[in-house]
Amino acid sequence: MPSHLANPLILDVPVVLLDMNGTFMFGGDRFGPDETYAPAYHALGGTLPAEVVDAAVAAAFAYLNVRYTDPAYHDAFPSVAEALLSVPEGRDLPTHDRRLIEGTFALHEVGHVPPEYVHVLQQLSRRHRLGLVADIWAERGAWERELNRAGVLRLFEALVFSSDGRSVKPSPEPFLRALQRLGAHPSEAVVVGDSARRDGGGAEAAGLPFVLVGGEEHPGALGQVDSLLTLA
């Protein structure tokens, strides 16, 4: 479907459920072989050697990453704390240090909301009730701080972070939970996200229409647009 047709479809819908990473938050998920985690950990007050911290974060990320694409874990996804207790690099660390490493993990996972996306979220909130349905692995605190810094936290009437429970997209559960908190029926809502498999697949499983941003395509989408900026 041509991208310009997505706009009026969204304008007529009372509720918009937004994905976060890659939709309006960017620069997160800073994990990989060239990443160093110890500076963030030491800034939080930790005292373990850098190589211990780097190994623990990398092992926890690998543990979660392989499960993130496994359908068996869509409604049984482990927490960062559980990941650290499940890998040799983390299980024998003192509890205090494991908690600091969880915080370090969150600081590398969280992104930022650019000013132009703040503006577009404000525009959307004037026409729709907004809900957030976001997959994150660490506890939600770092994301709430970033959303608050950007001035958009208050725009969302419902916040569903996957790390609050066990379900990750494309499970329909996070979308249904957001609708329940909004007191809305699927016929009143549309999902907007950047992942055909996770946002599109989860929306379909929940009986919700969806629009994709960022270039991915899905045969069931109402439309595909370049970005949330284009959509709004």
Report on the structure:
The structure is a single chain. This protein is of the alpha/beta class and 232 residues long. 45% of the residues lie in helices and 12% in strands. A six-stranded parallel sheet has the order 3-2-1-4-5-6, sandwiched between helices. α8 links the parallel β2 and β3. α3 packs across α4 and α3 crosses α6. The longest helix is centred in the first third of the chain and has 19 residues. The two termini are 17 Å apart. The N terminus is likely disordered.
List the helices and strands and how they pair.
Blueprint: H1 6-11, E1 15-18, H2 38-43, H3 50-68, H4 80-86, H5 88-91, H6 95-109, H7 115-127, E2 129-134, H8 141-150, E3 156-161, H9 173-182, E4 189-193, H10 196-205, E5 210-213, E6 223-225, H11 228-231
Parallel strand pairs: 1-2, 1-4, 2-3, 4-5, 5-6
Helix pairs in contact: 3-4, 3-6
